[in-house]
Amino acid sequence: HVLGRRARYYAALCRLELGDAEGARKALKALADAAPASSLEGALARIGLADADRRSGALDKAVESYRALSDEAALGMPRDYVIMSLASTLETAQRTTEAVASYR
Fold first, then answer.
1. 0.85 exceeded by pTM
2. 3-class state of residue 58 by DSSP
3. Three-state secondary-structure class, residue 21
């Protein structure tokens, strides 16, 4: 059910903000696996996982996730946020040439 998936997504974000990165990651992974690939909640959960990687310092993993999301044909939302997050993460990782290409 859509409302239940959305509630689980927001609950996972709350866990992340409260410092429970592992609990948030588990909840986001479960939601990403259960939600239809083209659903908004599924897309948000996969983006949330990439954001969690970025916040934890796993920049290469985050870059890989953002790239996969930006290439996903059935992504349930516009790609602008994903592309900007990819560019910002590349910039943080001091991969300037790739960041500039992503920003363009």
1. yes
2. coil
3. helix
